[in-house]
Amino acid sequence: MLTSGLICLFDVQIWAADIHIHVKPLSETVCDPVGRDSIHTEMTITKDDWLRLLEERNPELAKDITARALATITVRDESIKGAADSMPAFVRAAEKEAAHWGANQLFLEDTAVEEKFEEIAEVTFVAVRIQYKDWVIPPTFLAGLPYNPVSEEFVAQKLEEWNVAHLGKVKVTFSSRDQQDVLVFMAQVKNGTPLRLVLKNGTDVRGDYSGLDQDDQIWIRPSGFGGFLSHRSFRSKDVETVGILD
After folding, report:
1. Which candidate, 100, 127, 144, 172, has a CA 20 to 30 Å from the CA of 30?
2. Half-sphere exposure of 196 (CA within 13 A, CB side)
């Protein structure tokens, strides 16, 4: 979902260990966050090339597809020591940041090489939100639509199914709301309901809802094997988005 509103229009800089991330917003549009598994990273063509190929292969679909550039994300490795190619690490860091901004497609824009060791030191991506009507387009479709003709009926069905399964049948964003709104909403959710929490720091958690405690913490039994062994709690004031998955 695209939401009209203002976001920070100044550059954002983040440091983690030896990774330095610099984000330059390109739009005033606020988007719901997505998971990192919702992102496709395109290393060979630009956004304009992607749209041109889409129009050639799927002209009818292209009429209802929007591609909004949200930000440029520059990832710099300050620990260059002549190690092996670190491009996967750059991509992982950029995808994590892009997910928080609500982008589901990264396009490689530029790379910089450290002269001494001749290793990649910096990579810049353009983070783009690509939707068909109101649905976020998943990675497999982002990779295939510019090259393979697909019927509109098939795409609409599959995108609706994917969006419900991955982002939630019901989605509520609390980024500009009071903590009390989060508590009121969660109090209406039945224990055992599968849901997705996105925190304000970008953390994405999926699992079964286990209720609220007296400290206003939200308890989740995470999906996967680990969820059978432990529950996790999250402060309600840290929650940005809740998606009901079933």
Report:
1. 144
2. 25
Burial 211-230 (b: 16+ CB within 10 A, else e): ebeeeeebbbbbeeeeeeee
Query: pTM to 2 decimals?
Result: 0.76
Per the CB < 8 A criterion, the answer to whether 170 and 185 are in contact is no
Q: Are 219 and 233 in contact (CB under 8 A)?
A: yes
Residue 40 main-chain phi, psi, to 5 deg:
-110, 130
The total of other beta-carbon atoms located within 10 Å of residue 95's CB is: 24
Show the DSSP H helices in 138-213 as ranges: 139-144, 152-167, 179-187
Residue of 158, 160, 145, 156 whose CA lies nearest to 58: 145
- Among the listed residues 68, 100, 105, 77, the one whose alpha carbon sits nearest the alpha carbon of residue 21: 77
Cα–Cα distances (Å) from 34 to 97, 138, 142, 176, 222, in that order, read: 10, 10, 15, 18, 17
CA–CA dist 159, 124 (Å, integer): 29
Distance CA 78, CA 96 (A): 18
